[in-house]
Amino acid sequence: MHKLVLIRHGQSQWNLDNRFSGWADVDLTAQGLEEAKEAGRLLKEAGYSFDVAHTSVLKRAVRTLWGVQDEMGLMWIPVLTDWRLNERHYGALTGLNKAETAAKFGEDQVKVWRRSYDIPPPALERADNESVHDPRYAGLDPALIPDTECLKDTVARVLPYWHEVLAPAIRAGQRVVVAAHGNSLRALVKYLDGISDEDIVELNIPNGVPLVYEFDENLKPLRHYYLGDAEAIAAKMAAVANQGKAR
Ligand SMILES: O=C(O)[C@@H](CO)OP(=O)(O)O
């Protein structure tokens, strides 16, 4: 049996401030760092170890991974960073407060922007898109740098990473951990579990909690589960869903 561990980053400053983050490179809060370490402790206690780690090019995911590695005594394993694991690009909503946006445009509209499968948030003007000049994307065809993304667009970049990088490593017997983001992980989970475009709307991934997938030898998921206290995890998922309320 193969296993994969997915972890959404711990609380970021813009999670705390309730702002749309997307590709903005926001750091973890003290709580977020503690969540990362707690995830590492949980994994270690449960007997997990990893041969390789994958993360995005955004520091909230990278630093979460560092916290996990540090607690597990695994600072030495290879780490691959890749833009395809980045958060979904939030377009012109990036930086806006989610509750204020809901008060202005309505909670239903904000839910469409946050959770619909194929309706993207309003796009940034290319001239306003700082990622185009960001050295971390310098090797990338500028046409691949999004001005906004819906989940479907995120699936279109996350799945090649799964098929080309993650799945072959898991199949070869490597123990893999992925530290990424709410929506890049929703994209992967949608594919792994065959979740419909309608049902994915209600899926929210909590910050800083290890999500374990068990696969058969063909990488068909057998089951998945979060590590940690079930009630606390449910409360974290509800808190993510409620970020789009007007208050
Ligand atoms: O702001 C974002 O980039 C994401 C994740 O924090 O938020 P949401 O849950 O609203 O998609």
Plain-language structure description:
Catalyzes the interconversion of 2-phosphoglycerate and 3-phosphoglycerate. The chain has 247 residues and is an alpha/beta fold. It has one domain (2-242): Rossmann fold (3-Layer(aba) Sandwich), CATH 3.40.50.1240. 39% of the residues lie in helices and 13% in strands. It has helices at residues 13-16, 30-45, 59-72, 98-105, 107-115, 151-171, 182-193, 230-242; strands spanning 2-8, 52-55, 79-81, 176-180, 210-215, 221-226. It has a six-stranded mixed β-sheet with strand order 3-2-4-1-5-6, sandwiched between helices. The chain is globular, with a radius of gyration of 17 Å. The mean pLDDT is 97. 2-phosphoglyceric acid (2PG) binds at residues 15, 20-22, 87, 90, 114, 182-183, 240, 243.
Feature tags:
247 residues; alpha/beta; Rossmann fold; 6-stranded mixed β-sheet; 8 helices; 6 strands; 13% strand; binds 2-phosphoglyceric acid; His_PPase_superfam; His_Pase_superF_clade-1
In short:
This protein is α/β, with parallel strands linked by helices and 247 residues long. Helices cover 39% and strands 13% of the residues.
How many helices does DSSP assign? 8
CATH superfamily: Phosphoglycerate mutase-like
Tell me the count of domains: 1
**Ligand inventory:** 2-phosphoglyceric acid
Q: From the alpha-carbon coordinates, what is the Rg to the nearest angstrom?
A: 17 Å
User: What is the number of strand segments?
Assistant: 6
The secondary structure category is: alpha/beta
| End-to-end separation | 45 Å
Largest sheet: 6 strands, mixed
What is the typical, i.e. mean, pLDDT?
97
Helix content estimate: 25-40%
Q: Runs with pLDDT <50, length 5+?
A: none
Shape: globular
